[in-house]
Design a protein that fits this description.
Strand order of the largest sheet: 2-3-1-4-6-5
Mean pLDDT: 94
Order of helices and strands: EHEEHEHEEH
Shape: elongated
Low-confidence stretches: none
Structural class: alpha+beta
Helix content: 25-40%
Number of helices: 4
Radius of gyration: 17 Å
Number of strands: 6
Strand content: 35-45%
Length: 155
Protein backbone atom coordinates (compact mmCIF):
# COMPACT_ATOMS: atom_id res chain seq x y z
CA UNK A 1 0.00 0.00 0.00
CA UNK A 2 1.80 3.12 -1.24
CA UNK A 3 -1.08 5.59 -1.63
CA UNK A 4 -1.13 5.79 -5.44
CA UNK A 5 -3.04 3.32 -7.62
CA UNK A 6 -2.58 4.96 -11.01
CA UNK A 7 -1.03 7.89 -12.84
CA UNK A 8 -2.75 9.60 -15.77
CA UNK A 9 -1.65 12.31 -18.19
CA UNK A 10 -3.51 15.13 -19.87
CA UNK A 11 -1.43 16.71 -22.62
CA UNK A 12 -1.63 20.13 -24.24
CA UNK A 13 -2.70 22.10 -21.19
CA UNK A 14 -2.34 25.88 -20.81
CA UNK A 15 -1.76 27.66 -17.52
CA UNK A 16 -3.54 30.98 -16.97
CA UNK A 17 -2.51 33.16 -14.02
CA UNK A 18 -3.95 36.46 -12.89
CA UNK A 19 -1.32 37.92 -10.56
CA UNK A 20 -2.01 40.64 -8.05
CA UNK A 21 -5.67 41.02 -8.87
CA UNK A 22 -8.03 42.55 -6.32
CA UNK A 23 -8.99 40.00 -3.68
CA UNK A 24 -12.62 40.50 -4.59
CA UNK A 25 -14.74 37.38 -4.94
CA UNK A 26 -17.17 39.13 -7.29
CA UNK A 27 -14.31 39.98 -9.65
CA UNK A 28 -12.85 36.47 -9.48
CA UNK A 29 -16.26 34.92 -10.10
CA UNK A 30 -16.67 37.21 -13.13
CA UNK A 31 -13.56 35.64 -14.65
CA UNK A 32 -14.91 32.12 -14.18
CA UNK A 33 -18.41 33.06 -15.35
CA UNK A 34 -17.00 34.46 -18.60
CA UNK A 35 -15.13 31.21 -19.25
CA UNK A 36 -18.23 29.19 -18.39
CA UNK A 37 -20.38 31.25 -20.76
CA UNK A 38 -18.07 30.12 -23.58
CA UNK A 39 -18.16 26.47 -22.49
CA UNK A 40 -14.43 26.57 -21.68
CA UNK A 41 -13.65 23.98 -19.03
CA UNK A 42 -11.40 25.29 -16.26
CA UNK A 43 -9.35 22.82 -14.23
CA UNK A 44 -6.73 22.92 -11.48
CA UNK A 45 -7.95 26.15 -9.85
CA UNK A 46 -5.57 27.53 -7.25
CA UNK A 47 -5.81 30.82 -5.36
CA UNK A 48 -2.92 32.21 -3.33
CA UNK A 49 -3.56 33.62 0.12
CA UNK A 50 -4.45 37.30 -0.13
CA UNK A 51 -1.63 39.79 0.39
CA UNK A 52 -3.31 42.92 1.57
CA UNK A 53 -6.06 43.64 -0.92
CA UNK A 54 -4.67 41.51 -3.78
CA UNK A 55 -4.33 37.84 -4.60
CA UNK A 56 -3.26 35.58 -7.47
CA UNK A 57 -5.47 33.03 -9.18
CA UNK A 58 -4.18 30.29 -11.49
CA UNK A 59 -6.02 27.64 -13.43
CA UNK A 60 -5.54 25.34 -16.38
CA UNK A 61 -7.47 25.08 -19.64
CA UNK A 62 -7.09 23.00 -22.76
CA UNK A 63 -4.59 24.58 -25.15
CA UNK A 64 -7.07 23.76 -27.94
CA UNK A 65 -9.20 26.63 -26.61
CA UNK A 66 -6.30 29.10 -26.30
CA UNK A 67 -7.55 31.48 -29.02
CA UNK A 68 -10.90 31.80 -27.22
CA UNK A 69 -9.12 32.17 -23.88
CA UNK A 70 -7.07 35.06 -25.28
CA UNK A 71 -10.21 36.72 -26.64
CA UNK A 72 -11.89 36.48 -23.24
CA UNK A 73 -8.84 37.79 -21.46
CA UNK A 74 -8.68 40.78 -23.82
CA UNK A 75 -12.36 41.51 -23.18
CA UNK A 76 -11.79 41.22 -19.45
CA UNK A 77 -8.80 43.57 -19.60
CA UNK A 78 -10.93 46.19 -21.36
CA UNK A 79 -13.04 46.37 -18.19
CA UNK A 80 -10.07 45.92 -15.83
CA UNK A 81 -6.95 47.35 -17.54
CA UNK A 82 -4.69 47.00 -14.48
CA UNK A 83 -4.95 43.22 -14.56
CA UNK A 84 -2.13 41.55 -16.48
CA UNK A 85 -2.63 37.81 -17.00
CA UNK A 86 0.17 35.37 -17.76
CA UNK A 87 -0.43 32.45 -20.10
CA UNK A 88 1.85 29.45 -20.63
CA UNK A 89 0.88 26.74 -23.11
CA UNK A 90 2.42 23.40 -23.93
CA UNK A 91 2.10 21.79 -20.52
CA UNK A 92 1.07 18.40 -19.20
CA UNK A 93 -1.10 17.58 -16.20
CA UNK A 94 0.12 14.52 -14.31
CA UNK A 95 -2.52 13.16 -11.98
CA UNK A 96 -1.87 10.68 -9.18
CA UNK A 97 -4.93 8.79 -8.00
CA UNK A 98 -5.24 6.62 -4.93
CA UNK A 99 -8.20 5.40 -2.89
CA UNK A 100 -5.86 5.09 0.12
CA UNK A 101 -4.73 8.74 0.09
CA UNK A 102 -7.22 9.92 2.74
CA UNK A 103 -5.77 7.41 5.22
CA UNK A 104 -2.11 7.98 4.38
CA UNK A 105 0.12 10.88 5.26
CA UNK A 106 3.09 11.93 3.18
CA UNK A 107 1.89 10.93 -0.29
CA UNK A 108 2.15 14.48 -1.65
CA UNK A 109 5.51 14.95 0.08
CA UNK A 110 6.89 11.80 -1.57
CA UNK A 111 5.57 12.88 -4.97
CA UNK A 112 7.04 16.38 -4.70
CA UNK A 113 10.38 14.97 -3.51
CA UNK A 114 10.43 12.56 -6.49
CA UNK A 115 9.73 15.44 -8.88
CA UNK A 116 12.47 17.48 -7.22
CA UNK A 117 14.99 14.69 -7.70
CA UNK A 118 14.01 14.50 -11.39
CA UNK A 119 14.82 18.18 -11.89
CA UNK A 120 11.22 18.92 -12.83
CA UNK A 121 9.83 22.40 -12.31
CA UNK A 122 6.25 22.45 -11.03
CA UNK A 123 3.96 25.11 -12.42
CA UNK A 124 0.84 24.28 -10.41
CA UNK A 125 -0.30 21.76 -7.79
CA UNK A 126 -3.88 20.95 -6.82
CA UNK A 127 -5.25 18.18 -4.64
CA UNK A 128 -8.43 16.47 -3.56
CA UNK A 129 -9.00 13.62 -1.14
CA UNK A 130 -7.99 10.98 -3.66
CA UNK A 131 -5.80 12.74 -6.20
CA UNK A 132 -2.86 15.06 -6.61
CA UNK A 133 -2.43 16.94 -9.88
CA UNK A 134 0.83 18.48 -11.06
CA UNK A 135 1.19 20.80 -14.04
CA UNK A 136 4.63 20.50 -15.65
CA UNK A 137 6.10 21.69 -18.92
CA UNK A 138 6.04 19.20 -21.76
CA UNK A 139 9.87 19.22 -21.70
CA UNK A 140 9.85 17.80 -18.14
CA UNK A 141 7.01 15.33 -18.62
CA UNK A 142 8.97 12.12 -19.24
CA UNK A 143 11.41 12.72 -16.38
CA UNK A 144 8.57 13.61 -14.03
CA UNK A 145 6.52 10.59 -15.05
CA UNK A 146 9.48 8.22 -14.63
CA UNK A 147 10.28 9.63 -11.19
CA UNK A 148 6.67 9.26 -10.01
CA UNK A 149 6.31 5.74 -11.40
CA UNK A 150 9.51 4.72 -9.65
CA UNK A 151 8.53 6.36 -6.35
CA UNK A 152 5.12 4.68 -6.27
CA UNK A 153 6.22 1.44 -7.96
CA UNK A 154 3.85 1.77 -10.90
CA UNK A 155 4.47 0.71 -14.50
Amino acid sequence: MNGVDKITLTEDVALVTFSRIPADLALISEIFLQFGSRQINIDMISQAAPRGDTTSVSFSVSSERLVEVLELINQFREKHPAIKPLIAGGNVKIQLFGEQMPQMSGVAARAIAALSRSGCELMLITTSEVDISFLVSHAHCEDALSALREEFQLK
